[in-house]
Design brief:
With about 230 residues, the chain is mainly beta. About 25% of the residues are buried. The protein has helices spanning about 1-20, 150-155, and strands at about 35, 40-45, 55-60, 60-65, 65-70, 80-85, 95-105, 110-120, 125-140, 140-145, 165-170, 175-180, 190-195, 200, 205-210, 220-225. It is globular.
């Protein structure tokens, strides 16, 4: 009986010792670093076959295989993402991405515009800007506007892109804009024009007058310049 008890105590002591030896043990892993060819943000003509400039990765001095996934559709104007992934020798993944704006080259207003905003909230005036807002031509006279609020909440309040008011607008022959479709902001309502909004080809300035459809008394007067 004493021999059995001694054996049991020895096993427990050994297991306890192993457990203590593993406490606080850590290791260092080297995550992959990426080297992207070309720009991280590309403007790509619609219907032109896409050629990825490429992306490489390394773990220290060792090259690592990079895989990519994308929602890119070169037949449809819009903003897309190419995601790149590399896994190191310890099985840990690292990621980076490239943004691709597919646009119609015949749409002259495509590009980033500087936004300055005056907001009239039931008589209370406030100003914000400058912010950078993208207009992306998806046909000769149609544009995807990143935010019809000019970046007021997106950048000014630092709420993020969910609080922008994206929309597809049409540039008419008289240089006025009409909204063809609008996506609701995170507040729950889309944005509409509260007054005539237009492009002045002489000054190369865009003037937008907008409000959220559920807040008619809060008016945003936005001036976009290149």
């Amino acid at each position: 009986m004493k021999k059995i008890l001694l054996l049991f105590v020895s096993i427990v002591t050994l297991l306890s010792s192993c457990s203590k030896d593993s406490e606080g043990v850590s290791f260092i892993t080297t995550y992959c670093t990426f080297s992207m060819s070309g720009d991280q943000e590309l403007f790509w003509p619609i219907n032109k076959p896409f050629v990825d400039p490429g992306c490489t990765a390394s773990e220290g001095s060792t090259n690592v295989t990079v895989t990519s996934t994308s929602n890119l559709d070169i037949k449809k104007g819009g903003t897309y993402t190419i995601n790149y992934k590399a896994v190191n020798s310890d099985g840990y993944a690292a990621n980076t991405s490239r943004t691709v704006h597919v646009y119609d080259p015949t749409a002259p207003l495509t590009g980033y515009w500087t936004s300055n905003i005056v907001r009239n909230n039931a008589g209370t005036i406030a100003k914000r800007g400058p912010f950078s807002i993208l207009l992306l031509g998806i046909s000769p006279n149609e544009y995807l506007v990143a935010d019809l609020l000019g970046g007021w909440y997106w950048f000014g309040s630092n709420y993020g892109a969910a609080y922008a008011g994206p929309a597809v607008v049409k540039l008419n022959a008289d240089n006025t804009f009409t909204i063809e479709s609008a996506t609701p902001t995170a507040f729950g309502a889309p944005v509409e024009f509260s007054d005539v909004s237009l492009y002045d080809p002489t000054t190369k300035t865009i003037t937008l007058h907008t409000n959220m459809t559920d807040t008619k008394t809060m008016l945003f007067n936005i001036t976009l310049t290149k």
